[in-house]
Design a protein that fits this description.
- Its main location: membrane.
- By secondary structure, the chain is mainly alpha-helical.
- Helix content is 98%, strand content 0%.
- The chain is rod-shaped and about 120 Å long.
């Protein structure tokens, strides 16, 4: 009878150790999943930020092209006015 009681305790101890091991593995897995989720959120925010930056750069480029057209038009107008001024001075 003493042997069977010791055998049950040893089996119980092994099952207890296995349960503790399973619990710690579950805990580690939960930590990893949480960490991975946090990383995915950070990555998503960074991608969205980059997308917004690209959008702002595109807008700035379009504005710059519009300004360049306005500057070229002004330059052309100034050249024409200089020619008219020269003609008026001859008269």
């Amino acid at each position: 009878a003493g042997r069977s009681g010791a055998g049950k305790m040893a089996a119980g101890g092994a099952a207890d150790a296995q349960a503790r091991f399973g619990h710690s593995v579950k805990g580690l897995l939960t930590e990893k999943v949480t960490s991975c989720g946090t990383d995915v959120i950070a990555l998503t925010k960074q991608v969205l930020k980059g997308s917004r930056s690209a959008e702002l750069l595109g807008q700035a480029a379009r504005n710059m092209v519009m300004q360049e057209d306005a500057i070229l038009h002004s330059e052309d107008s100034l050249r024409k006015m200089a020619i008219i001024t020269t003609h008026l001075q001859y008269q």
